[in-house]
């Protein structure tokens, strides 16, 4: 498991994602998703805990609604990142990166998890 981020530049837009936009989409894939709305800090304004075929995963939406931290295997992180991308207006650029910023990739609207993983694997 690793930590990944999916985010957009909050200085370029006033648009924000709200937890109710992501929750049913995550629950549609992982029915036993546990939600925790407890604010634990700026980076943990809302938490989803998931059990996937790759193991446990967690996603934390920051309090300003522009960044999702994902602790998961790459397969699950890519799927969650694509779900986040689908919730964000097409006009907003969404970035996927790992905790160490070893890569940063633009997620185009309609990107599949497999395509995103392919981009990660191809990153120099």
> What is the average per-residue confidence, as pLDDT, rounded to a whole number?
93
Task: State the secondary-structure class.
Answer: alpha+beta
Alpha-carbon distance between the two ends: 21 Å
Low-pLDDT sequence parts: none
General shape: globular
Q: Total number of helical segments?
A: 3
Number of strands: 7
Q: What integer value in Å does the Rg equal?
A: 13 Å
- Largest sheet entry: 7 strands, antiparallel
Strand order of the largest sheet: 2-3-4-5-1-6-7
The amount of helix comes to 25-40%
Strand content: 25-35%
Please provide the ordered H/E string of secondary-structure elements: EHEEEEHEEH
Can you describe what's shown?
The protein has 124 residues and is α+β, with helices and mostly antiparallel strands. It is built from three helices and seven strands. Strands 2-3-4-5-1-6-7 form a seven-stranded antiparallel β-sheet, covered by helices on one side. Strand 4 and strand 5 form a beta hairpin. Helix 2 crosses helix 3 (113-122). The longest helix is centred in the middle third of the chain and has 14 residues, at 74-87. The model has no long low-confidence stretch (mean pLDDT 93).
């Amino acid at each position: 498991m690793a930590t990944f981020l999916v985010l957009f530049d909050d200085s370029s837009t006033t648009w924000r994602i709200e937890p109710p936009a992501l929750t049913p989409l995550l629950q549609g894939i992982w029915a036993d998703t546990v939600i925790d709305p407890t604010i634990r800090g700026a980076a943990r304004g809302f938490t989803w805990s998931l059990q996937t075929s790759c193991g446990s995963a967690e996603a934390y939406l920051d309090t300003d609604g522009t960044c999702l931290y994902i602790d998961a295997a790459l397969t699950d992180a890519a799927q969650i990142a694509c779900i986040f991308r689908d919730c964000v207006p097409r006009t907003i650029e969404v970035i996927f990166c790992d905790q160490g910023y070893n890569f940063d990739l633009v997620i185009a609207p309609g990107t599949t998890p497999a395509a995103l993983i392919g981009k990660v694997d191809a990153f120099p």
